[in-house]
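Need residues for this backbone.
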């Protein structure tokens, strides 16, 4: 039996995928924060070239059903 993700799981995955795509273009890596939304931090972004650069990110995603 396959368990399909709910709408919120899908939006969370889409926002993380978008962040990874933008970060890859900027030569950065993205690491999701383990254990969910801890302290409003969903992931962190780090530069490949400059190891001391680190950005904590809170992701948001909304959706609207089409008629």
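Answer:
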């Amino acid at each position: 039996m396959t368990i399909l993700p709910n709408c919120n799981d899908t939006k969370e995955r889409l926002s993380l995928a978008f962040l990874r795509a933008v970060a890859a273009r900027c030569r950065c890596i993205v690491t999701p924060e383990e254990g969910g939304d801890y302290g409003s931090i969903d992931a962190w972004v780090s530069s490949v070239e400059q190891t001391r650069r680190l950005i904590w990110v809170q992701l948001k995603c909304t959706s609207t059903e089409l008629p």
